[in-house]
Structures are given as C-alpha cells and as structure tokens.
Amino acid sequence: MFATIEAFTAEWESESGLTDRVLSGLTNDSLGQAIAADRRTLGDLAWHLATSLRFMTALGLDFDGGADHAPRNAAGIAEEYRRISSAVLQAVRTQWNDGSLEEAQTIMGEQWRNGDSLRFTLMHQAHHRGQMTVLMRQAGLRPPEIYGPTYETWVDQGKTPLA
Ligand code: NI
Q1: Where in the chain are the domains?
Q2: Distance 51 CA to ligand 1 centre (A)
Q3: What's the 124 CA to ligand 1 centre distance in angstroms?
Q4: How far is the CA of 114 from the CAs of 9, 99, 104, 136, 154, in angstroms?
Q5: Cα(79) to centroid(ligand 1), Å
Q6: What's the pLDDT tens digit per position in 57-100?
Q7: Of the candidates 123, 109, 129, which has an alpha carbon nearest to the alpha carbon of residue 48?
Q8: CA 45 to ligand 1 center in whole angstroms
Q9: How far apart are CA 126 and CA 57, in angstroms?
Q10: What is the pTM of this model?
Q11: Domain spanning 5-156, CATH architecture
C-alpha cells in the first residue's frame, strides 16, 4: 500500500529502471526463448510487462497503454515499455492525489485501495523480471544486476559464486 504519490514516484522510477535494464538486455534472437514449447517466450513476457500496465486504466487513470501487437524487435519493446511506464507515472502524478490512494475499487472481485493496486503493479513487474532472467540465461544472455550481484558479477570480481 502506498500512502503518498511521492513514495510511489520514488519506487516507480527505481523499479521501472530495473525493468528497463532487463528489457534492454534482450536481443532479437532471444525473444523466442521459452522454458517449454507451449509457454510464454521471453518476448511475450517483455511485451506483457509493457502492456499489462494498461490494467491501470481500469482504475480510472487515463494514458496511452500502447499498441495491441508487439514490435518485432527487442529495442522496440524496451522503447515502448519506457514510454508506457513514464505515461503511467505521469498519470498517477497528475490525475491522483494522496487521498486517491485510499479510495477502493473492485479488482478481481476484491476491494483494493488504489495504493494497493500501485504496490501490486510494482510486485507484478518484479515477478516477471525474475522469470525473464532465467530465460535470458537459457538464451545465452547475461542478465543484469537487479537487487544485487549476479553469478557473472562474482566471477568478474574473482569471487566464488553461490551456484
Ligand atoms: Ni502477469
């Protein structure tokens, strides 16, 4: 639950930067990587992170949630993510105030305060980033550091990685 727009702004700027770091680490060849044949690909998850932000329009926020079809290249997906994530922040900052965060709406059959919905949006991004870093490794890419050093960072620093 976020109680203030300022608190959300600070976290969103940081977390959307982390998501951008993951999306910007993708290559065109990696977009088809999946853990199994019938599961979402790296490209699907990248595009989902960009367009799932549309859910926020159901909360009454007005912003351009992006096109229906993903760009065919990794850089295009990352660019669209940056555009939509900054539109979300702009909408929250200009269309809501701290009082709006206490207002509740029915989401998936439950009463969610808008401040809870903002928290959910941040956690949802982290959830899929975690899936994507696994797929990045399977695709032969080096995942970026998110909340700390990666296996490769430890190796670079001459340390013994923790598996
Ligand atoms: Ni999702």
Answers
A1: 5-156
A2: 10
A3: 6
A4: 14, 10, 6, 33, 40
A5: 19
A6: 999 999 999 888 888 899 999 999 999 999 999 999 999 999 99
A7: 129
A8: 8
A9: 20
A10: 0.93
A11: Up-down Bundle (1.20)
Compute the distance from residue 158 Cα to the ligand 1 centre, in Å: 36
Rounded distance from Cα 102 to ligand 1 centre (Å):
24
Q: 18 to each of 51, 113, 126, 139, how far by Cα in Å?
A: 17, 25, 9, 20
Per-residue 3-state assignment (H helix, E strand, C coil) for the chain: CCCCHHHHHHHHHHHHHHHHHHHHCCCHHHHHCCCCCCCCCHHHHHHHHHHHHHHHHHHCCCCCCCCCCCCCCHHHHHHHHHHHHHHHHHHHHHHCCHHHHHCEEEECCEEEEHHHHHHHHHHHHHHHHHHHHHHHHHCCCCCCCCCCCCHHHHHHCCCCCCC
Q: How many angstroms is it from 149 CA to the middle of ligand 1? A: 25
10-26 per-position pLDDT tens digit: 999 999 999 999 999 99
